[in-house]
Design brief:
Layout: H1 3-7, E1 12-14, H2 17-23, H3 44-56, H4 59-79, H5 87-96, H6 103-107, H7 113-127, H8 132-143, E2 153-155, H9 156-170, H10 179-188, H11 194-208, H12 220-225
Antiparallel strand pairs: 1-2
Amino acid sequence: MSAYQQEHGWTAVPRSLDKLVANRKHKEPSRPIRVDDIPLPSSPLVDQVVSYARKNLSRQTYNHSMRVFYYGQAIVTQHFPEWKFSPETYLLACLLHDIGTTDNNITSTNLSFEFYGGTISLDLLKSLHADVSQAEAVCETIIRHQDLGDTGNITTLTAVTHFATVLDNAGLNGELVHEDTIKSVVAEYPREKWTGCFAGVVRKECELKPWANTTRIDAFAEMVEANKLMEKYD
């Protein structure tokens, strides 16, 4: 594994989040890390993707995407500091991971929203002259960002996206972030009833596409609605 590949998260780790949590080297209690403590990457590429995301995503989905970035960065900083990927690459993946759920995109293809979103994102990033390894890393992560399970491997970029999305969407692995971190992130990027919004997206995807990848997660909409960790912030 070259440092160049590692920069974009191309390092294999177990797909099982339980294994990752149990075997992490840094098991200290989570400490407060606030939005201001986490640098937001800035570059012409980031600026263009932020503009694209703001234009195409609903405000609720955009805010979710940004919460995923901050939660993920806090989790890696404290619990998996050995994962040395580019924060810019992770931000791009966060901004685009739900692009397949827009009203237009979810109805314009038979593909599962993650697969279509990955394709859209790969084409977009290539058109913006992103590094091929970076664009493919984002695509891989988007395609697999709901690929939860106990066998096989995923990339570090996908793993942190798993941790952050299931934290925000279902309240899982809440011990990996301090409550003050959640308060800070939600203050900057409010949930605005995200629980009901995302549960609705899950049901719409499964109704439109009964073969969808989302159907792999049993009672997923109900799991989202049972998110006790984020209930008071909705």
